[in-house]
Amino acid sequence: MLSTRFTELITVDHPVASAGMGGGATSGHLVGEVSEAGGLGIVGASFLPPEEVAQQVSRARELTSKPIGINLLLHATEDRVDEILAFEPEVFSTAWARDDQGLAGIFAKAHECGSRVMHMVTRADDAERAVAAGADVIVAQGNEGGGHIGEIGTVVIVRQVVKAVADVPVLAAGGFTDGAGLAAALALGADGVLLGTRFLATEEAPVEPAYKNAIVASDGSDTVMSTLGDSFSGRDWPGAWGRLLRTRFVQEWSGREPELRRRRERAWAQLEELEQSNADDGLMWMGQSAGLIESIKPAAEVVREIVADAERILRSRLPTFL
Ligand SMILES: Cc1cc2nc3c(=O)[nH]c(=O)nc-3n(C[C@H](O)[C@H](O)[C@H](O)COP(=O)(O)O)c2cc1C
Fold it and tell me: Is the pLDDT of residue 223 over 90?
């Protein structure tokens, strides 16, 4: 068993969390399996209707009595904080706040509901701000991660955040898939890892088979950092790039964001058609970690393998260097 400040504070067996990926990239099944296996499963609530969030939470609660989390992208969903806290998640997971948002008030509400607050950052000064506002855990997310990302690579941002908020547990995110990654994160001073792309390529993830297969097929070098997804959706995402697969749709619109903003309707129709005719050509958010993912597995197996491999590396390989 790997015991860290994160496992102790959140009362989970393993220092592994599945990312609260919004827009329908998590399911209650996925979250319940991760938590029941001893990790922390997190529902991605952003851009989902309230009844779907409720379904995911109740499915996860059917599968496990262990802690779960629910995630909100604060810049887009601050009006949903009360709705989410009413589910009394053990962990209220947040990310991507605007500078003008009052984190202290939001985090205090979560604490009043008995939730721990876990906030994701891509810069050390944002970690300091979140801790000053009362965050209990910080996720330091590096640029190789999937979805929306910042500018700094994982090794650097994790060290920067660990140094900046020494008294608070830190999870490392961006690029992690296996036990070697977890062992490395612990060596960097983190208290565990949070994984997105790896959990998309699981049996329980509610995304299309073509998406999962594209992750398995990717060598990581075919992901790109772009703002195309936000030009397309029309969302004003503060401070973020997005990392996604370089598909036909992405190639066609890259460098033409102003036109994309003007022709959104046409682009939506094109995307819908592509997704029906050849899903491989559509829009698939994933990190460079796709280059380390070789098969689609049950989520519980992912959790168990990461922890077992990390333990083996810490016990057998690392001591040989001393
Ligand atoms: C499809 C997708 C959707 C995501 N949605 C969210 C989200 O709604 N909220 C959030 O905090 N992070 C979100 N993330 C980012 C993850 O929290 C995490 O930082 C990232 O996946 C880590 O990198 P990895 O993919 O290499 O594991 C998303 C990531 C992906 C791939």
Answer: yes
